[in-house]
Design brief:
The chain is α/β, with parallel strands linked by helices. The protein has helices at about 30-35, 50-60, 65, 85-90, 145, 155-170, 195-200, 215-225, 235-265, 295-300, 325-335, 345-350, 415-425, 430-445, 450-455, 465-470; strands spanning about 5-10, 40, 45, 95-100, 115-120, 150, 180-185, 190-195, 270-275, 300, 305, 315, 320, 360-365, 375-380, 380-385, 390-395. The protein has 16 helices and 17 strands. Helix 4 runs parallel beside helix 11 (about 325-335) and helix 6 packs parallel to helix 9 (about 235-265).
Length: about 475
């Protein structure tokens, strides 16, 4: 039996961008090797397709509509008990290394120690996203296409430092049960990949995007705010994909170094390893880039579980979620579970038969949206509800690329009704939507009003800890 837990989480890694998921281009040998000795969850999802709310949900094991960590300006602050609190209280050595995207390192979020943490800017976050009623132009969206290329970025430098720190910690771990949360930033943009990894991909060989911008008012609203796609001509799109895949392979190499350090530390046989990402990346599919939407490339996440007692070489189609991390951490380490957690341990899911009836849930209330988005996935179906607007319905077995929205078809009625019922077993979307807008209005007022939110923190990706220190004047 294992007594330790190693979680390795990346940022913006779409679920299909791994060799073990059958991707025809991307090279991920270390993740593929982990999958070969473990279980791949082929239908895993994020609680919210945006960094800050997802990381709050991952920590608390609860959906953002319950905790109030709605968006990128409501970061996790330790107010709601986390699984890290549960483990630390139980005597488990619980440490983070790398990106957290919580409010501040001074908050008690449950980790006994934070090594090289990245938190939101100024303890506040991305305030422009709060202005959903009257969103300003998001001019920094152009950076995504401009930053494509070969070389090092502040993020790749940060990932190298995280990897080195994780390797050092894992090579001499404590002599009592422990849990390490190692959080990399790649393949999150800027899409600048180190030369050795960029060289693995010829832009001319990149597959074209799938689909066009859907004819749905809310997707159109999001695309108008995050207007990334208009900055990409075909050549720039192929270059961006090559860089993204290069960053994915760079991240995979970092994972390989981390796992090698675990082996060198002599505790691999006592450790359950979980690899996940916080959300995906659209890469131009459906005319969209980055995340924020409920399509598989954005809301789906990679998930690999390996270690003692975990079936090797298995693909599990049961719907899974980052909500399942909290109960998994408790089961692996022997810490008590919290009844507020809505997930289940991944260990029995990996060992059991596929359960097509299990539900995954995701929601979005952040920048660019005019209303909330609520996603339910079960069996072959994906149902997305937008209060005040038409829903979406996809048959993922017949249409894995989500090109045919079935919501308006006559035969979709029973499935739409079932999706609505399953969603309301989790929350009332209309009531949640109203409460979210009220909370965000209060947050806007507390920050000094709309003008302050428009001008305070405008950026396309969070600066690294070193960059934030320079901005604050703490470093030359």
């Amino acid at each position: 039996m294992a007594r330790n837990l190693l979680i390795v989480i990346s940022d913006e890694h779409r679920r299909d961008a791994m060799g073990c998921m059958g991707h025809p281009v991307v090279q991920t040998p270390h993740l593929d090797a982990l999958a070969a000795r473990g279980t791949v969850f082929t239908n895993a999802y994020t609680p919210s397709p945006m960094c800050v709310p997802t990381r709050a949900a991952l920590a608390t094991g609860q959906p953002v509509h319950r905790t109030g960590y709605w968006d990128s300006a409501h970061p996790y602050d330790g107010r709601v008990r986390s699984w890290m609190h549960a483990l630390t209280t139980a005597g488990i050595e619980t440490v983070s290394i790398g990106k957290l995207h919580f409010r501040d390192a001074a908050d008690d979020t449950g980790f006994a120690r934070q090594i090289l943490p990245m938190h939101v800017v100024g303890g506040v976050g991305w305030t422009v996203g709060l202005l959903r009623r009257d969103p300003p132009p998001y001019d920094v969206a152009a950076e995504l296409a401009q930053d494509v290329g070969i070389g090092e970025s502040s993020y790749t430098a940060y990932d190298r430092a995280i990897t080195a720190a994780a390797a050092e910690w894992l090579s001499a771990p404590p002599d009592r049960p422990w849990a390490a949360f190692v959080s990399l930033v790649s393949p999150h943009y800027p899409l600048t990949a180190p030369a050795a990894f960029h060289a693995l991909y010829d832009p001319a060989d990149m597959p074209p995007p799938i689909g066009a911008l859907p004819d749905h008012p809310e997707i159109g609203h999001l695309a108008a705010f995050f207007d990334y796609d208009r900055h990409f001509d075909p050549e720039r799109m192929r270059a961006a994909k090559a860089a993204y895949f290069g960053l994915t392979s760079f991240m995979d190499a970092c994972v390989g170094q981390i796992l090698a350090a675990l082996e060198a530390g002599g505790q691999a046989e006592d450790t359950v390893i979980l690899y996940v990402s916080d959300h995906g990346e659209m890469l131009g599919d459906h005319g969209l880039w980055t995340k924020q939407v409920m399509y598989e490339a954005s809301a789906g996440v990679p998930m690999i579980l390996a270690g003692p007692g975990i079936p090797g070489g298995r693909s599990c189609a049961t719907a899974a979620s980052l909500f399942d991390i909290a109960p998994t951490a408790a089961e692996v380490t022997g810490a008590p579970a919290d009844p507020a957690w809505i997930g289940d341990s991944l260990l029995p899911l990996a060992r059991g038969a596929d359960d097509p009836d299990r539900v995954a849930f995701s929601e979005y209330h952040d920048g660019g949206s005019s209303t909330g988005a609520f996603m339910i996935r079960w069996d072959r179906w994906k149902y997305v509800e937008y209060p005040g607007q038409a829903p979406q319905l996809f048959d993922l077995a017949a249409d894995p690329d989500e090109l045919a929205d079935l919501a308006a078809t006559a035969e979709a009625g029973p499935v739409l009704a079932e999706g609505a019922v399953r969603l309301r077993e989790i929350c009332d979307p209309e009531a949640v939507n109203a409460r979210c807008f009220a909370d965000q209005a209060a947050r806007i007022a507390a920050l000094g009003g709309e003008t302050a939110c428009r001008e305070a923190y405008v950026f396309n990706h969070t600066p690294t800890p070193t960059e934030q220190a320079r901005l604050a004047g703490d470093l030359p």
